[in-house]
Specification:
With 314 residues, this protein is an alpha/beta fold. The protein has a domain at 9-147 and 181-213 and 281-294: NAD(P)-binding Rossmann-like Domain (Rossmann fold), CATH 3.40.50. 40% of the residues lie in helices and 14% in strands. The chain has a 7-stranded parallel beta sheet with strand order 3-2-1-4-5-6-10, sandwiched between helices. Strands 11-8-12 form a 3-stranded mixed beta sheet. Strands 7-9 form a two-stranded parallel ribbon. Helix 4 links the parallel strand 5 (107-111) and strand 6. Helix 5 (159-166) crosses helix 8.
């Protein structure tokens, strides 16, 4: 008896942080991958690269043609110009949905953000919430994934915290808690959801919104996370003061002056950083039969710090 063929997976954002981990996970699972890229990529076994971006309707049409499922990861997470979120995250998602409809591709795994839970706090979160609404209004068989803070090898955002921890000082937003997830665990979930379209598990995941994490109940307080990152870089203790919102806003202005469009701390990020609860909801965790985290926070942070050192990012 022959085995059913693995679905062909189309991935947007495949060259980014989460996307690159997802591409690796899809290939490891035996999928054929079609991947959108803004610039030429070296040939890779199992991957068909499609040159273009979310504004290129012809490229999106070529990307999804012949695919069984689309994992839509591409989007804008940070910019000094909040108006850019609309074009990248909302209009871009609308283009993906339209391309899928035209090609007759019915299954979509959409990567949103926990920030969509409170759209009033940031332009980024608001754009992700609007993109979610477009997905939910479509005729597609969709599953939306709202990751919390994602970390792991190749990440440049949490790298800033690791670098700060090496100096023994990690400035924090006002008191609160957050969930985290390793990029490899998130990638495994996305691929499991893609595979569910042909495995009989599609019904359970269909038209659901999931909030995955590392499995730590109650998430991590900001100070707990700072201390864990400190241990990962060899610091037994780090100083981790909570900074008022006004101080963070001033720091965002200073970062813009220092790094221009490459600034990591923006006023928009300050908006959702100061919210006290970015812990996933237990009733929105993916069902254990479908997926479960394999990388505990302490273990993952240690391994990430080692990767940063090996690549000389730290």
């Amino acid at each position: 008896m022959s085995l059913a063929p693995q679905p062909v997976v189309a991935i947007t954002g495949a060259t980014g942080f989460v996307g690159s981990h997802t591409l690796e996970a899809a290939l490891a699972a035996g999928h054929a991958v079609r991947a959108l890229t803004r610039r030429d990529q070296p040939p890779q076994a199992g991957v068909t690269w499609v040159r273009g971006d979310l504004a290129d309707r012809a490229a999106l049409g070529a990307l999804v043609q012949g695919a069984d499922v689309v994992i839509h990861i591409a989007g804008l997470t940070n910019t000094p110009d909040p108006a850019q979120f609309e074009a990248a995250n909302v209009t871009g998602t609308a283009h993906v949905i339209a391309a899928m409809a035209a090609a007759g591709v019915g299954r979509l795994v959409f990567v949103s953000s926990l920030a969509a839970r409170r759209p009033e706090l940031s332009s980024y979160g608001a754009s992700k919430a609007r993109a979610e609404a477009l997905v939910e209004a479509s005729a597609l068989d969709w599953t939306t994934v709202r990751p919390p803070a994602v970390y792991g090898p190749r990440d440049t955002d949490m790298l800033e915290l690791f670098r700060a921890a090496r100096w023994g000082l990690v400035p924090l937003p006002p008191g609160g808690a957050t969930s985290i997830i390793h990029a490899a665990d998130l990638a495994a979930l996305l691929v499991a959801l893609a595979a569910s379209s042909s495995s009989g598990a599609a019904g359970e995941a269909s038209r659901k919104v999931y909030e995955p994490d590392d499995g730590r109940e109650g998430g991590w307080s900001h100070k707990e996370l700072a201390q864990a990152i400190g241990r990962a870089v060899g610091r037994r203790r780090v100083l981790a003061p909570h900074l008022p919102r006004a101080v963070l806003a001033a720091a965002a202005a200073a970062d813009r002056l220092a790094r221009g469009d490459r600034a990591k701390l923006t006023p928009d990020r300050v908006g959702y950083m100061c919210h006290p609860n970015w812990v996933v909801r237990s009733d929105r965790r993916p069902p254990p039969a479908l997926w479960g985290p394999r990388i505990a926070g302490e273990e993952g942070l240690m391994a990430t710090a080692e990767w940063y050192r090996r690549e000389r990012w730290l």
